[in-house]
Amino acid sequence: MAKSRTPRGLDRLVNFTDASVAIAITLLVLPLVDLVADGKDRSVRELLDDGQGTFLAFAISFVVIANFWTGHHRVFEHLRDYSPTMLRINFLWLASIVFIPFTTQLLADVGTDDPAVNALYIGTMIVTTASLALIEVLAVRSPDLQRPEVRGQIDARGAGIAIAVLLVALVLSIVVPDVGMFWLFLLFLSGPLTKALRSR
Question: 152: helix, coil or strand?
């Protein structure tokens, strides 16, 4: 397969992705800044009480984006090249990442007991997880894109289980909205389920 990409291409792709993620994770703090800059005279305790939802949304989204970046970093550490399809899917992954600050603001403003907000947030996570899973599948199907010393180590089954768990969390967040975003704790089952699948 003829390629016109240079060795710097993968570095530029990763650097652009990292910069975009850094901007998205930085935007999460803006609602917290607004709490201080709203002109109200409050003590720190009152500020924390008034902004409970905002702080919770920030914490959840910071952990979510950090974990997504870690997964992306893990996959691309195995690659020495990429395909045009991978590039397009990576932009889909990025689009979902930069959308998270918007859904975070919705969580802070509306609350975690609104089924529509929860569904939008978890749905965004599903897009992020699925797009990275597609990149993993493409890498598995094209071993020449992987670095020789780690070739064959990419396994997309973990991402598949995470998608399944997120779909369950999505349904439950709509059916039982009182639990809200705490349905995301189901993701802790992904690790044990992945290990069980691999052991079989």
Answer: coil
Rounded distance, CA 136 to CA 19, Å?
A: 21
Give the whole-angstrom CA distance, residue 64 versus residue 66: 6
Can you give the pTM of this predicted structure?
Answer: 0.87
Answer whether 133's CB lies under 8 Å from 147's CB.
no
pLDDT level of residue 2 (50, 70, 90 thresholds): very low
Cα 21 to chain centroid, rounded: 10
CB atoms within 10 A of CB 22: 12
On the 0-12 / 13-18 / 19+ scale of CB atoms within 10 A, 114 is middle
Token pair of 122 as six digits: 């978890």
Q: Are 114 and 174 in contact (CB under 8 A)?
A: no
CB 92 within 8 A of CB 128: no
Domain coordinates in residue numbering, the chain: 8-199
pLDDT at 82 over 50: yes
Beta strands in 100-182 (DSSP E): none
- Between vectors from CA 63 to CA 199 and to CA 120, what angle results, nearest 5°? 95
pLDDT tens-digit series, residues 89-123: 999 999 999 999 999 888 888 877 788 999 999 99
Q: Residue 12's CB: how many other CB atoms inside 10 A?
A: 11
